[in-house]
Amino acid sequence: MEHRLGHSPHRQIGWILLVLLFGVGFSGCAHRQAIQAARSENAEKLSLDARRARERGDLLSAETLLTAAVERNPTDDDIRLELAELLLVNRKPQTAERHLQLLLDRLPDDSRVYAALAEVRFQQQRLQEANVLVAEALDLDPRLIRGLMLRARIAQSHGEIQHALDDLYQVLDIDPNDLEARLLVARLHIRQGDVRLAAAELRSLIENPNLDTALKNKANWLLGRCYAEDERWAEAAEALSSGIASRQIKPRDWCLVAEARRRAGDRDGAEQALTNALHIAPDDPDAMALQAVLKEEQARVKAPAPAVVRTGHREEDTEEISPLIRPPLTSLDGPRQGADH
Fold first, then answer.
1. In terms of CB atoms within 10 Å, which end of the chain has fewer, N or C?
2. Secondary element (H or E) of residue 158
3. End-to-end distance of the chain based on CA atoms, in angstroms?
4. Is the dihedral of CA 242, 246, 250, 256 positive or negative?
5. Residue 276: CB atoms within 10 Å
6. How many whole angstroms separate alpha carbon 257 and alpha carbon 274?
7. Is residue 190 a contact partner of residue 324, using CB atoms and an 8 Å limit?
8. pLDDT tens track for 295-316
9. How far apart are CA 40 and CA 46, in angstroms?
10. Cβ contacts of residue 254 below 8 Å, gap of 6+?
């Protein structure tokens, strides 16, 4: 009997060990998969929370949440790219570049990675390198909106306004509701001196129900500049007052609001705006000159004096991107200048 069965007891033990080892291995693999699935699910939830924070305008919280999401699931390339793009919005190009270099190794043919790296170089003012990278991105995907927008901004930096407009109109052909592109189109029309064309674009933009508060404030400020250029002072005062929230806290901006209100005949509004300017910088020359004019007008009760603060467009009106309008102006009593061409 034993001979007939051979070494069956040993074979049985071998089979049992094999089954046990297989079961342990399978169980370990299943356990790792379950952990990975849980980490992935957790990362997705953090990513979703980050998007909600970004929609609220809380960019720092969004960055924190996306960073945690990447730490939970470092192999999720889409979340890592989302984090890199948000870091660029938050003006942290060096941190963004570390994530993008890793993605470049994993996704060597992804146009989005090249476009984001181009944005890194653009923020570092390395425009030639940015131009090469954005060209690579657009070779991979000629309809990539992020790439077209960046190429327009690079062209704008070089003063190539028509090339920039060509790219922006291509963006609007792809997505007519790209509000950022429309705002930049208006800026470039202003730089070319087409303030009425820009004003029409800005009015249409402001009426868009999907326009967020930040873009609306920027559009109102530019519209106020257009109205001031056309000497439509009441409308200029209203638009500038609505848009000043988009500006950095500088006395010259409040001086411009004060000047528009003074010319519109709103003395109380002019004095309030001037008070804001003097609160920021009590010795600001524009504010002090305007204060002297307002006092003189009050004392003499006569028609408004010549402009103290010029209302033509300045370089600072372009916010964080490259110059779009004109160099800063100092306070002079003199004729109003037109827009740069």
1. N
2. none
3. 107
4. negative
5. 18
6. 8
7. yes
8. 988 887 655 566 666 666 555 5
9. 10
10. 244, 273, 274, 276, 277, 280, 287
